[in-house]
Amino acid sequence: MSLKAMKKEELELLSNKDIAYMILEESNKKMNTADLFKKIIKLLELPNSVFESKIADFYTALSTDKRFILLDNGKWDLRNNHTSDKVIKISDDEEDDEEEEIENDKQEEIEEDSFDDTENEDYDDETNEELKDLVVIDEDELELEE
Hints:
mainly alpha
């Protein structure tokens, strides 16, 4: 049903967001917050004081409603008028290059993480020398000593 065909009583049952949606849908125009809210106030025959006291709430309501989108120029439009049709096509050669780079990166990480025994021979000898006098004690033996 169009806004013009609706009675004031029917409009009063709708939220400001719903009326704004209908206005943008019917007009196929992008509108800024003030113009859109003024149109709603005019349709509902509200006093101008409502504009000043409720414009911030109206802006918040539009910005939190996923049906609306705020454009770069400060005007509101319906989100369903702005679908993303952009698809990036990567050629097969680029895909192969990317996969090869990923595999090379993974191999380098593995090589960096692997432990090289030849670099740490001195460390291992010192550690073994320090640990040779240590004795492993079972829990049962530990309790007996107490």
